[in-house]
Structures are given as structure tokens and as C-alpha cells.
Amino acid sequence: xxxxxxxxxTALKVVMIVIVLGLVWFVLFHNLLPDLFSVYxxxxxxxxxxxxxIAIYLYRALSLPLEKAxxxxxxxxxxxxxxxxxxxEINEGLFVIDHMGRITYISPSVTLLIGFKPQEMIxxxxxxFIAPEDEELVFxxxxxxxxxxxxxMQYRILTKEGATRWVRSLSKPYKTxxxxxxxxxxxxxxxxxxEKDLALMESEARWRALVQQAPDYIITTDLNGKIEFVNRNFxxxxxxxxxxxxxxxxxxxxxxxxxKDAIHQVVKKDALQRFEVALENEGQKHWYLVRSGPIxxxxxxxxxxxxxxxxxxxxNYEQELQEIRAHLQELLSxxxxxxxxxxxxxxxxxxxxxxxxxxxxxxxxxxxxRIATCAAKxxxxxxxxxxxxxxxxxxxxxxxxKELMKHKKDLN
Length: 412
Prior knowledge:
The protein is an alpha+beta fold. The chain has helices spanning 6-37, 45-89, 110-114, 118-121, 135-146, 191-213, 239-242, 253-269, 312-377, 383-411, and strands at residues 93-97, 103-106, 153-158, 164-175, 181-189, 217-221, 227-230, 273-281, 284-297, 300-310. The protein has 4 domains: 6-87; 90-196, Beta-Lactamase, CATH 3.30.450; 216-310, 2-Layer Sandwich (Beta-Lactamase); 333-411. The strands form 2 sheets. The protein has a 5-stranded antiparallel beta sheet. It has a 5-stranded antiparallel beta sheet with strand order 7-6-10-9-8, sandwiched between helices. A hairpin with a 2-residue loop joins strand 8 and strand 9.
């Protein structure tokens, strides 16, 4: 059996009808005309050939437009199948909502997003799938889209399990066959991106709170030292006035070179730097320990950080400690001199005792011997001599005692 395309079968049917009608007309008129009009129409091969030519012409005339129509139909079916497959396979969800807010179409990819199958959602109000916190926002946006205002938006939708997912949608109005305005658009899952953004915002908020409450000055600059951020007022200068200045302009002229050298070392050699700087504020000197390092992005230095810690109290303690140390050194020197003097006095006293005591001991020995002699001889006449020697001995003792007391006083 010959396989014919639909358009060929249609053209063949038309031709067959024409042939059949021609044959019927020939048979009827060939038999009826003689009886009615006594006229015998000629029946020849020419007539039949003419009928076939008409049939062939009709077949060709009909088959060409029918073939084109069939090709267009197949192309439309192919494109419809291709685009339907594309719509059903993309990750983004496509949706159509009528003027009442009912879902009339949603692509199968929505199942991966929230767990509902398209047939479970079609015919229901779209607000049933919106998180309660965002219902008013989404409903107002739906009304704005119907009025022709087009803008992307993000909100939360509910999954089949009751969890929430973040989505971004872009929709436009369209007119239904009845003339009502609905909307159709695309839905994209952005949950991971939003959660990362929220985590980043939370981390940034913690970092900012930590930085703003830090007792140190925290400053970031570009590669040339131009200030881009400072965590608080710089003494009496407001933050907004500090930003945009060169960091070394905030320091005295004698420390500018130190700061510029630190910037050079960090930028050119990727080396951490530490230095001290003294700043005057309302007549008081403040000392700061500054630590400087690089800010990197993709392993490339894009800026610098400066963290300045107030070490004025430590400096004051160091100064006081130096003063106490100097005072103790002075006291030690004085005591050393006093000890040396006392030692000399003791040595002088030792010499005095060593010089006087033998004489006094000799006199005392002689005196005791005289007393013993007198007592043995029982001579009273010698008592006057003994008394005189005793007076001499007493005088010598007083003299030695005075010298000892004088040395004692000098030592005190």
C-alpha cells in the first residue's frame, strides 16, 4: 500500500471526486441525451484524456498549497514540542495567572522548588503558596503588574512541607481571550543567594559593631594612604571629615616620613609594620602604637589597615618607672657613700681604740700592781700616790670615753 502524506490524500480525494463526477455526467448524458433530444454526444478517447488532464491539473493545483500547509503545520508542531520541552526542563519556573489570581499554568520545574506538582497548583489562588509575611507585598505587586508596571521582586514562598524558599520573579501583564488582564512571568530560586547575603550582612553587622566599639582607632586606606574608613571620630574631627584625607596628614610633620615608609613597606614588600607616634590634643600628648598591614583581594594588595592603640598610660608608667629607678639609683649612691663614710669612721675608731687602749690597759695594770704591792706591805703612806694614779687613770678613761662618744655621734 502506498503511503501518502495527509495533503496528498486530500488532493487525491478531490481528483477522484472530479473523475467520478465526470464519468457520472458522461454516462447520464450519453444515455439521456439521445432519448430526450435525439442527440448522440461523441464518446472518444479525447474526452477521457481531457478529463484525466483536468484531474491531474486539479491534483497538482491542490497538492502544492496543501503541501505547504502541511509543512507549516509540522513546523509548528515541532516548535511547540521543542519549546514545551525547553519550558519543562529549565530550572526557572514559568507561570500564568488569570485576572482573579488563579494559576492557569505553571511549569513542571516548580516541583523541584516547592514539592507541588503542576496539577496540584493549577486552578488555585497563587496567594495560597506565598509566605504569610509577604502576602500583602505580593498581592500589591500583582495589582501593579495588571496596571502595566513591570519590575522584578523577591519574596518567600511555601513548600509542600511548610518550609520557606526565597524566589525572584519578573512578570508582565497579558490580555486573555475574554479581555481580562492576567500576568505571566518567570520564577527563579534564590534561596542560597539570599541566605549567603543575610549571613554576610549579619557578619558585617557584627564586624561593624566590634570595630565601632573597639577602643583602638581602626583605619583603612587605599594604596596611597588615602583614608576610606575610620571607626570613630578622630579626636575632635568627625568621621566624615577624616575620610578622604591622607593618613600621614593627621600626624605631626616629624612622623610623616615614618608613616610613608610604613606604607611603602606594606605595599611593595607585603610586610607588617609597627611604629609609635605622638599626637597632641588640647595641649596633652597622646602616644599610639600603630600596626599596619595589607588588605588583599584575590591575593592582590588593594589597600591597607592601620590599627592605633593608645599607649599613653604605658608611656606614663614607663616614665614614672624611669624616674623611680633614677631616684632609687640616687638613694643607693647616697647610701653607698654613707656606708663608705661609716666604714672609714669604724676604721678610724678601730685605730683610736688600737692606739689608746694599750696605754690605758698599761696604766690600769700598773695601778692594780701598785695596789697589790701596797696591800702586801701594808703601807699607808703609798695611798696618796695610788690616789693620784687613780685620778690620772680616771682622766685617761674619760678622754677615751669622749672620743668614743664623738665617733658614735659622727656615725649616727
